[in-house]
């Protein structure tokens, strides 16, 4: 098969949702369609449940599972589908943000009863800013939930999207009869039977046909006709270009648990979702069909076996082919590296592969060479952009609790930060180290891992910070010099050496912005693009 055909058949995407909306269930049903797994229940739940906050064995067990399910690949209708797993737990939101830099599109799952929830809002905002094509799947139609139109309004308003329904429910909950597939123009009747398959679909392209009454009953037929009229009156018709540039989001309805509406979603996804895209590097735009390999590290999974400091770096291939045992340039280090056992992912297994294509993810064994955001190429000096750090929500000083183990502690902190577990800030004033995290859970994870993997002990001390802001200013500017002098106590360097202002309150942030207007304060580490 030609290189071009290989690229065209790849669909790399992520499923995002608020915990419990049905992401795991939907993933599993998609894998069933691909024949990648034989039975429901085969995909282990990759959730770090709230109850697990102080149960470290549970966290470790979950980490094990999440390596296996980091990338789930399968073939469906001759397309190679790569699903990149995103942790639903909010304390791992940063992980999810980074994974979103490696997807070409996303499916957003929303619970019909709960509507748009907090975590969905945050994640969709990131996708919207990056103009990632999104399909919305409204799940759990077998339960009573919100009215479909109200929900579509909520999605538009809370998520800032422009939706267009490509299917529409017929009834809901106890009264749920099925869905009308606007995209394919057919009716899919719901029997509450999880073995539903394609044969159950009735082609129905003329909604005025009186046969409709016979199939779904008089009342439901009337309602469906009204609803579809409203849909075509209110929403702009589906336009693939708009979807691809992030300006329109098709919506499907269904029930993942009952495997209902999932085939429709998948079939449409295969048709419309984008193959691997062109990506911006700092130096230039890189097209997927360029022959020279390039890719970037978006995730690092470490120390599955604490006895070996083994890490798996996940690389998204942007262009060219990645081949086993071929030397590639690690751009940040300026040296060539060869990989004798790159892993590819298939369903919930990983195996060694000789060649991978744009859109694919390879897992590379690493002994500490990689950081998140690193670029690998066939030789060209490229640096992929787009893996910013966001301001953490929590900040604590980290102290060494065992003076004999200082070296181990610093090595541990260094490696955990490379993995992206949390962010490290070093105060300008006294060199003290501050760990910033998205959720409180990470502090326990860090403490546990430092002890079990590096033999080091740490304690924490509260450090009240409202927000970390990355500073942008001209070096010799007088105002900047004064800012640095007056605010010295609040300044730190992040791991890349960028200057960060740690504002202790919203008020002080506002005052600082007013007083030093030429000093720009950013909430993410990447700006100016
Ligand atoms: P998540 O990954 O987004 O966190 O959600 P997950 O798939 O684990 O689903 C959360 C709960 O919602 C699960 O129930 C799951 O069975 C249920 N669910 C998913 N899709 C549907 C659906 O279409 N209809 C209904 N009625 N329920 C659905 P649970 O009781 O929390 O877990 P489990 O014991 O069933 O695994």
TrEMBL record:
Its main location: cytoplasm. It holds the Pfam family RF3_C. Belongs to the TRAFAC class translation factor GTPase superfamily. Classic translation factor GTPase family. PrfC subfamily. Residues 8-277 form the Tr-type G domain. Gene3D superfamilies: P-loop containing nucleotide triphosphate hydrolases (3.40.50.300), Peptide chain release factor 3, domain III (3.30.70.3280). It comes from Croceitalea dokdonensis DOKDO 023. One of its GO terms (cellular component) is cytosol. One of its GO terms (molecular function) is GTP binding. This is Peptide chain release factor 3. Increases the formation of ribosomal termination complexes and stimulates activities of RF-1 and RF-2. It binds guanine nucleotides and has strong preference for UGA stop codons. It may interact directly with the ribosome. The stimulation of RF-1 and RF-2 is significantly reduced by GTP and GDP, but not by GMP. One of its GO terms (biological process) is regulation of translational termination. Keywords: Cytoplasm, GTP-binding, Nucleotide-binding, Protein biosynthesis. GTP binds at residues 17-24, 85-89, 139-142. It is found in: Cytoplasm. It comes from the Bacteria.
